[in-house]
Amino acid sequence: MAAGAARRTFLAVIISLLLVGTAGVSVWLMASSGVFSLGDDQNLPSAPGAGPSAAEAVDEPLPFYGGAVYAPRDPFEPLVTVTATTVPGETTTTVAGQTTTTVAGQTTTTVAGQTTTTQGNIPGTKRITLLEIRDNDGVYTAVVSIDDVTYTVGVGDTFAQDFKVISLDSDSGVFMYGDNVFTLSVGQSIIK
Questions:
Q1: How many CA atoms lie within 13 A of 82 on its CB side?
Q2: CATH architecture for the domain at 127-191
Q3: Are 188 and 129 in contact (CB under 8 A)?
């Protein structure tokens, strides 16, 4: 029994010395790295030198290595917001801070305070706008503008050579362009 107790005591002393040695080395490393700095200590030989102070900083732009730069965006703001207007033929769409307004073939785009205006339609396309729906004793007729030419049409009518009215209700209509069927609400426009 005495031999087992002596062995445990010897092992406890060895472990205690290792722990004390490890603690001593840790304190020495922290002291030499400046963790316990009292002010006028020097940096480690491998530590990088101090950079220029704010007074010494040079006003040089950072190098640009390509890629796009985007303005920050509010994550709680919807990406697409469509605003209804009371002006017939005008549509306004806001997508992630970019507002696009279209009135009679003229498109105005505003991004971060910068406004761009373009006139006319895309070549080879037609802009159709549903200006209003009229109710004549329960029979609906639509007032439609195609490339700034206005048509008053009813269900089944073909107009502007390629468009046909499929159905109408009090605030929207279903139209056909070739084999393509689409729906427009009053004040909405689309390019075909």
A1: 8
A2: Roll (2.30)
A3: yes
Query: 23 has which bridge partners?
Result: none
DSSP E strands, 22-171: 80-83, 90-95, 98-103, 106-111, 114-119, 127-136, 139-146, 149-154, 158-159, 163-168
Which amino acid type is present at position 131? L
d(Cα 168, Cα 133) in Å, to the nearest integer? Answer: 8
Nearest to 153 by CA among 165, 166, 138: 165
Amino acid at 102: T
Q: Where are the domains of the chain?
A: 80-119, 127-191
Summarised one tens digit per residue, pLDDT across range 91-146 is 666 555 556 666 555 666 555 555 555 555 455 678 888 999 999 888 999 999 98
